[in-house]
Amino acid sequence: MPVLTLQPSGKAIEVESGKSLLSAILAAGESILHKCEGKAECGSCHIYVKEGRKTLSKIQRAENEKLDSIVGVSSNSRLACQALMGTENITVELLSFV
Ligand code: FES
Prior knowledge:
Ubiquitin-like (UB roll)
């Protein structure tokens, strides 16, 4: 299974392909805000994908529109609730802490 590495903690976990990054991050015991519970409405689960961005699921319209409204968005930004794990290893940086 592909490995998801989380920064800044450095924790690395195996994640099934097709699983949302938000659920994987929570399952790893890391703190990440997710105020709308995964509906692409709040933007609180914003993360930066440092490596492996291309293996993730493509950005859909709802995610794209929400990202457009978030301060601090970069070309590496994703919403953890919308990005689905692909088949290769990735590294993400968590930005919000509960
Ligand atoms: S949890 Fe609200 S946008 Fe991801």
